Every structure is written in C-alpha cells, then in structure tokens.
Amino acid sequence: MGCNAIRTSHNVPAPELLELCDKMGFIVIDEIFDKYDNKADLPQGADFLEFAEPNVRNFVMRDRNHPCIVLWSVGNEITDVETNYNGGFKSFRQW
Fold first, then answer.
1. What pLDDT is stored for residue 66 in this prediction?
2. Out of 28, 39, 75, 81, which residue is the most buried by the measure of CB atoms under 10 Å away?
C-alpha cells in the first residue's frame, strides 16, 4: 500500500499525534488500554466496567473525526480469549 502505520499501544495517544498523522498521511491503530478485562492495572477491588465505560466513550468521542484512524483497539495480548468461549466480550455486551 506504500504507507506507514502507527499503533498507539496500551495508551490513548496525544491529540497532537493524531493531528500530525492526519496531515502526514500515516494510518493509526488507536488503542485505549492494554487489556479489556479485569486486569487493566486497576487497584484491587476496583470495578473495571465502572472504569472502562466512560473512558471508552470519551476516547471514541474525542478521536472519531480523525481520518488517519483505521482501527480501534481495546486491548491485546489477552490470554483469556483463547480459553474463554465468549472471547472476554461478555461484560461489554451488558452496556
């Protein structure tokens, strides 16, 4: 395809990065956090869904109009996808 790509691994990127990618023609995989389940480095006893829902909504709303974004990511390197029949998405279906 003759282009360059950037994956914003494990963190929401700075708005300036996405603006530059739009201008320079980079394509971007926009990622919010490393893991979408109860292992997102939250304190013991914290409710992941309570943490994740507003963060994902704000992330998508903020970055939605950037033409550089070709893929949204909510995590990677997740071993429970291999062993969990629902692929770990059961909790997100409750939203």
1. 97
2. 28
- Is residue 77 among the annotated active site residues? yes
| pLDDT over threshold 50, residue 63 | yes
DSSP, residue by residue, 29-63: EEE--S-SSTTSSPPTT--HHHHHHHHHHHHHHHH
The one catalytic residue in 19, 31, 53, 77 is: 77
Q: Which residue matches tokens 């291999």? A: 82
Q: What angle do CA 44, 92, 87 make, to 5 degrees?
A: 90
Q: How many CB atoms lie within 10 A of CB 14?
A: 10
